[in-house]
Amino acid sequence: MAERDHLEPGEQSPALARRFDEMLAEDDRIEPRDWMPDAYRATLIRQIAQHAHSEIIGMQPEANWITRAPSLRRKAILMAKVQDEAGHGLYLYGAAETLGVDRRDLLELLNTRKQRYSSIFNYPTTSWADVGAIGWLVDGAAITNQVPLCRCSYGPYARAMVRICKEESFHQRQGFDLLLTLSKGTAEQHAMAQDAVNRWWWPSLMMFGPPDDQSPNSAQSMAWGIKRFSNDELRQKFVDMTVPQADVLGLSLPDPELTLDGQTGHYRFGPIDWDEFARVLKGGGPCNEQRIAHRVKAHDEGEWVRQAAAAHAAKHAPVRALKPATEAVA
Ligand code: BYC
User: Fold this and answer.
1) For a pocket test of ligand 1, which of 40, 45, 50 has the largest count of ligand atoms closer than 8 A to its C-beta?
2) Atom 51, ligand 1: which residue's CA is nearest?
């Protein structure tokens, strides 16, 4: 009997499992129609959902400054950036849905704190310079982590990341430009930029996740080609890229142990406070409560929009189905 090209959930087929392994070995992309192990699917859902949640929660700290941007130009840039983050969330929830989950369920898991979002968004934005520090450091860390995800083994996630990374690199440059302007401005502006960098540096290093020897998911995710580099490798890449940029900005990084190791060509840096990271992940960061409360409120207040969109779709679905193909194309 010919082998089926799909299996019921939980069903195993040695031939399909072999084909999956071959596709990974050949660096082919796994697509939604392909058989995949349940654990691979579950890992992708966890990571893509956490990533999508980070994008939409990440809108909050920066949106806090839209009404107080110092010029029309800066306001327009910031509004566009925050809207980009919403778009990233949409691409990523869409990618997660190709794995058989519903975005309504994922949002419910976020709103009830059963799924995570990035630790970085639990810190407050207390000055305008924080918008620059987020762009330069947080988006810089995000790009370092996300460019390799463009080569992730799961096709829909990899393709979503290509566009996201292009937009993130624009975000990083606007953050750098904002900080450069402040750094070269008045003494007060320079001090504001330095203060923001001092507060965002260490949390940015934590974004890459726990050290490799305490990262339960890394080994398997790397074997599956979901992650292409380990947490520590990417963290090091980010530090090496960022230190020279700080010099150009005329700002210092808050780590007295930061030194270039002449032998390896990498910057050595001081110890990261992993207790703080664990505290933030458990809900004890400065803004965890505020972020989720705001998200739940926005979700509840958006109920009428979801209902209206569903009613509109239901009203027009049969009409669309009846239209001739030529008209649909035109
Ligand atoms: N925050 O075994 P590990 C953005 C969790 S959005 C919270 O190393 P993994 C932006 C991890 O989930 C940036 N949790 O895990 C948006 C795991 O949890 P479980 C978001 C973290 O998955 C708006 C546990 O700790 N980027 O840039 O192999 C405006 C053990 O860790 C964090 C992404 O999501 C953290 N920082 O590696 C501006 C990128 N780190 O097992 C900017 C995609 C770890 O208890 N994600 N955990 O559920 C990834 O690349 C990987 O998931 C990670 C973690 C490197 C983050």
Assistant:
1) 50
2) 47
Q: Which atom of ligand 1 is nearest to the CA of 206?
A: 36
Query: How far, in Å, is the centroid of ligand 1 from the Cα of 209?
Result: 6
Instruction: List, for the chain, all residue ranges whose pLDDT scores fall below the cut of 70.
Output: 1-11, 319-330
Whether 164 contacts 200, CB under 8 Å: no
φ/ψ (deg, to 5) at 267 = -85, 130
Distance CA 66, CA 120 (A): 19
Q: How far is CA 60 from the centre of its chain?
A: 14
Distance CA 19, CA 6 (A): 12
Could you tell me which of 85, 82, 86 has the C-alpha nearest to residue 66?
Answer: 82
Q: Count Cβ atoms below 10 Å from residue 50 Cβ, excluding itself.
A: 18
> Best of 54, 123, 169, 222 to mutate for ligand 1, by most ligand atoms within 8 A of CB?
54
State if residue 119 touches ligand 1 by the CB under 6 angstroms criterion.
Answer: yes
For ligand 1, whether the C-beta of 230 sits within 6 Å is: no
pLDDT for position 2 = 46
Alpha carbons 253 and 257: distance in angstroms, whole number: 10
The residue to which tokens 């960061």 are assigned: 285
pLDDT at 13: 80
Q: Is 60 in the pocket of ligand 1 (CB under 6 A)?
A: no
Q: How buried is 271 (Cβ within 10 angstroms: 0-12 exposed, 13-18 middle, 19+ buried)?
A: exposed
| Ligand 1 atom 27: residue of nearest CA | 142
- What is the model's pLDDT at position 323? 60
- Comparing C-alpha atoms, which of 269, 260, 150, 262 is closest to residue 204? 269
Of 107, 139, 151, the closest CA to residue 295 belongs to: 107
